[in-house]
Amino acid sequence: MTIKPLFDQVLIKMTEAEETTKSGIILAASAQEKPQVAEVIAVGDGKYDDNGKLVPMIVKVGDKVLTRKYGGTDVKIDGEEYTLVGQEDILAIVTA
Questions:
Q1: Which segment of 1-5, 14-18, 71-75, 85-89 scores lowest on mean pLDDT?
Q2: Which of 35, 54, 68, 71 is 20 to 30 A from 14 (CA-CA)?
């Protein structure tokens, strides 16, 4: 199954949550923080402004992004978990 987000929506796949602390303590699943870094899987075409002009997307497929901690809609596609968020829920593009 393929999903093509509409307008300014972005399909992302979250990175794995940290299972151990920096000092080596193993965290229970309930104590792990929700990850905020994700990979962009698919993007919509953009959003129309008040004058009817298409404003293109800033993020592109393959970008690593920092997202709001809570938000978006979780979806499951072919057994994989993804999140659908609006571009405004993406706070930054992560670079090396």
A1: 14-18
A2: 54
Alpha-carbon distance of 83 to 81, in angstroms, equals 7
- What digits encode the pLDDT tens for the residues 60-92? 999 999 998 888 999 998 999 999 999 999 999
Q: Which residues, listed in sequence order, are joined to residue 37 by a DSSP beta bridge?
A: 66
Q: Which of 70, 47, 46 is nearest to 60 (CA)?
A: 46
Helix (H) or strand (E) holding 40: strand 37-43
Q: Longest C-alpha distance within the chain, in Å?
A: 55
pLDDT at 2: 84
